[in-house]
Fold these 3 entries.
Entry 1:
Amino acid sequence: MQSWKPRLKVDETKAAFTLQEAAVLLDLTYNEVRRLIQTGEIEAKKYGLKYLIPRNDIKWFLFQQKLEREN
């Protein structure tokens, strides 16, 4: 049986987000965010073992999604 986990709280004022934080902000799964990075739909910078996604890239992706829904 899978236990319920509370949704991660994300400080939206940060300059960059981990993949897990980006997944919460974009309402996607962690793997979906990884796929978006691999396909180049979202840019991420690798720092050591972690990928960070700049806040502006998150905003841009959300803006593009909104435009696609409106058309």
Note: The chain is about 45% helix and 15% strand.
Entry 2:
Amino acid sequence: MTQRGMSRSDLLALPAAVDLVTAGRALSLGRSKAYELAQSGEFPVRLLRVGTAYRVPTADLLELLGIRNGDGAAPLANSPASTPNAA
């Protein structure tokens, strides 16, 4: 089965963190390669461990891919715009 990447709109619609398979799909990596890179410490973005699962911060993934949101700014995990109750 051929692994397809994700469109810009698909990427911008992702939640704050995604599973390793989704992050791999965004990078056009198959499941096995994504896990291989994660386990060797070579996955190209920061990984979070939640129990035995890997989670990938979407902001880090978008930054790696050079994807910017509609106003031209790259979404950053710690920016006020990404905080739901920011004034």
Note: The first strand starts at residue 17 and ends at 19.
Entry 3:
Amino acid sequence: MSLWRTKSIEDSLADSHLEHRSLKRTLGTWDLMVMGVAVAVGAGIFSVGARAAGDYAGPSVSLAFVLAAVTCALAIMCYAEFASTVPVAGSAYTFTYATLGELLAWIIGWDLILEMLTAGAVIAKYWGIYLSLVFDLWGWDVPDTISLLGLQVSWGPFLIVAVFTTLLVLGTQLSARVGAVFTIIKVAIVLFVIVVGAFFIKVENYTPFIPEARPTEGGSGDAWAQSLFSFLTGAAPAQYGIFGLLAGASLVFFAFIGFDVVATSAEEVRNPQKNLPRGIFGGLAIVTVLYIGVSLVLTGMVPYTTLAEAEDPSLATAFVAVGADWAAQVISVGILAGLTTVIMVLLLGLARVLFAMSRDGLLPRSLSVTSDKRHTPVRIQIITGVLVALLAGLTDVGILEEMINIGTLSAFVLVSIAVVVLRKKRPDLPRAFKVPLSPFLPILSAVLCTWLMLNLTTLTWVRFLVWLAIGLVIYFAYGRRHSVLGREQAHAALAQKAAAE
């Protein structure tokens, strides 16, 4: 059986109508835009931007956001072409299966699981932490952990994951409506940050816009902490300067993850050919404007050195530094609302990727059964909720943060390449949206995503390779032998052989 066998577009579309294995189309353009903003405007805008400014880019962090946004936009164009052509659950996994073959599809599906599982756990953990901070603001003494069977358990992640797992089991549209309420709240708080913070801007804080490069602490001997690019080329790890700006772009890319998650809901979208591209690009435009506005205000309020000196810099750090502690309290509530919707969309995306892989037989097919009444994958949704809650509630998830980026970027690279391949293999397919200037822009997307990956640390790459190795073991031990496509091709080959005899 070939490792490069591909699943036809027609078969993928037919699977979306299978009895007891299909999803209900209930989402429109507005729902998709809200979903994109809901998953993107979270921890990234409230904390990652401040860290990137303080440790890597200085005031030029706004350019880092622009570079990350351009890279994301190029990749999202590729997603939009695929999702409008093949409106089936699974996102990059499904697209890769149709173009580059089963093995690469498994790898990208495994990467997406890494991205959404780790992101869900990290965000759920932070949600519990910020919930405790909000309780402190209200003067309530509520511990953030409880002792259970001798273990210290963070109860916050279990609570929020349980709530949204239940909502997603009840229906995607219901979850989208609840998410919309929280999204409106956090966008209002982001606008509050921009407007109020603008009154504290000092123009001199923007100088130098790109600080002069300097060696990082630990030097070239700190092999695990330096970027893979620095490790491979022998260049000394540096803060600030052009390479610091690029490293900052790799970090703030975390703030743009999630738009690929929107594509995983393609099978639940009404009129996906029209609504998917509009929803994805509308959400990305809103998020980019908000990010650039916040980054300009952040670095204008305080010198970037103030952020660099903070142990855990965030937007609240800047407001406290200028004496606006009351604004920092509002931001804490905004962060809690922001993280809430991120968890919801990540749980949705993770379940849909696992659903698609299960329906194809690469994971147990019993998991892909949907409920008769609500057409939601109840089993997978509950399993993903349990996994995310356990990971967030019982482990230190700090080491997982960069794993989110590398999982997303690797998916972006393969989808960008797959668009070019599908154009060559199936020029006859109707495409509601086409990436302009193909193959130049898809190739540029793949190159930029690869570059951002190279700017992640060597330790992140080692962990990523270990994750891939585990995935390959599972594929060859189970997925390859139980693949629906593989079994169909084997049966066809036997029938052809019997007919010939």
Note: Strands lie at 145-148, 151-154, 214-215, 238-239.
